[in-house]
Amino acid sequence: MRTVRVTIDPARSGALPKGRIDRARVEVTTEADIARQAAADEAQAMQDAARFARRVRKRLGFSQAQFAERIDVSLETIRNWEQGKRSPTGAAKALLKVLEKAPEAALAALR
Hints:
Elements: H1 23-28, H2 31-60, H3 64-71, H4 75-82, H5 90-101, H6 103-109
Helix pairs in contact: 2-4, 2-5, 3-4, 5-6
């Protein structure tokens, strides 16, 4: 990949390429439109996290109860993750990633 360095002179802002945006659409976008899109993005992220948690558990061959016991969280937490009500964060998210990539080592460490 090639790196291109550009020096921007604020006095000559018209010399910059305009980019690939639809200015008319940007101008008519309201704060409500932005908030609606942000909410939709957040909902999609929650569903992605739910699918990830479910995929990791199923790949390991555990029921929700077995998985909850193995990683020492409540069954309700596992259900909330998989239903998209909550999203794993911090250490739980890291543990799911390790369980996906190196399940034997992670499970051995959790004994």
